[in-house]
Every structure is written in structure tokens, then in C-alpha cells.
Amino acid sequence: MSALLRAEAVVKSFGDREVLRGVDLSLDRHEVVALIGASGSGKSTLLRCLNLLEPIDDGQIWLDDDDISDPRVDANRVRARFGAVFQSYNLFPHLTVLDNVTLASRVVHRMPRREAEERARDLLQRIGLAEFAKAHPDRLSGGQQQRAAIVRAIATDPELLLLDEVTSALDPELVGEVLELVRQLAAEGTTILMATHEMAFARDVADRVVFLDAGTIVEEGPPAQLFGAPREARTREFLARFTA
């Protein structure tokens, strides 16, 4: 079976600073892959390149059988195939939670409002936010806003969900409720690529962990192997920070 997503020798620089140095990464359908690494290692940049929010300088990116790094590609149509959630919630403050969740379904995917709202209400019910459907985001806690942002990302049934440090802006007591939603999505077979500093969560939920350092993939493998018996000295050095 061919990979759903393939990045081949991806290079990205900002000015004279090379952030990604020939990254090769693949992701199969229904696979959950955790990207780990220090701040500045290139995790967020890689996700933004995969989602065509940043143009790459070299290499190729394939989504299914489509070369989405081809400069002639319609980037908006490609992004419609992804769900993406970043560190800040990015909910529109002037829209209700329901309108935030249904916006892409209605505007991008042309889903009838009634159908979009029915699906959104079902999703909000599942994660305990049904009572806030008609509320504006400022009535929600940070954890509730981030869960609503994740629901917005999955409401369109994306082929792939990109999560970029979705708990980093949250107070510690709110982290668990967001991670529990991601855990549920993973258990349901959602294909997920997530950049995270939550090592215990990556160990428990991911099928594969990828360690990125200075724009290069140093090591990747099943969580038990990478966390339990890392092969590379740089990986051991990085993980020692979390076990000291």
C-alpha cells in the first residue's frame, strides 16, 4: 500500500538560515506519527510546508498520488484535503462555536448548512461542548477552545490531520482534555501527524515517533524502541531531559 503522504528531500530556508535539510518522511493511512524535537528543530516549519502554507525550496511532497509541491498546483484545493490545528486556537471571535466549526464545510466544501450543522452538533456533543454551540469563543476556556478548533478541523473528514503543539498554549490542567480528544481520534483510525512536547502521550498514542533535530530526521521508529532503546546519541541526549 502506498503512503498517504510522502515528503522527499524537502529543503526550506528563511534567508540564509536552513530550517529543513533534506527531510524524508512518509505517513500511511490510519497511522499516527509524533514529531518530537527541541524548539527550533523544524517541526512547525515541516507541518506548514506539508500543508503548503510555506513553499519549499527543494524536494517533493506527495499526497496520495498527487505531487502537491508542483508550483502549478491549486494550494487551496490541496489544503481542503487537510485538517490543521496550530498552537493558537484561531477561532473567529465574531462567530459562534457552531459557525466556526461549520465554516469550512459550508464555504470550502459546499456542504448544505443543515447537513454541516447536524454533523457539527454531533461532534460537539461527543466532546462535551454541545451547550456552547451558540456561544462565542470568549465564553470557552482555553482547553474548550482548542477542542473546538480540533472539531472544526475534522468536521470536513480530512484525509490527514496535522496538529502543531496543540497543548503548548494551554494551562497544565487543561492539557489532558485536549489530549484525550486526540487519543479518541487516533483510536477511531484518523491519520494524524502531530508535533508535540508531550512525550508520555507520544509514547502511548503514536504508532511511530520521529525525532527531528536541526532540520534533519535523526531517528524514527516505534515508540517502545525510540523511547526505550534509542540508537542515536543525539536522541538519547534529547530524551534525557525528560527523564532526568
From TrEMBL:
Q: Which UniProt keywords apply?
A: Amino-acid transport, ATP-binding, Cell membrane, Membrane, Nucleotide-binding, Transport
One matching Pfam family is ABC_tran
Q: Which GO MF term does the entry hold, naming one?
A: ATP binding
- This protein's superkingdom? Bacteria
Q: Where is the ABC transporter domain?
A: 5-239
Q: Gene3D superfamilies, from UniProt? A: P-loop containing nucleotide triphosphate hydrolases
Q: CDD domains under this entry? A: ABC_HisP_GlnQ
Family assignment?
Answer: Belongs to the ABC transporter superfamily.
PANTHER family in the record, alphabetically? AMINO ACID IMPORT ATP-BINDING PROTEIN, GLUTAMATE_ASPARTATE IMPORT ATP-BINDING PROTEIN GLTL
List the protein's name: Amino acid ABC transporter ATP-binding protein
- Origin organism is Microbacterium fluvii
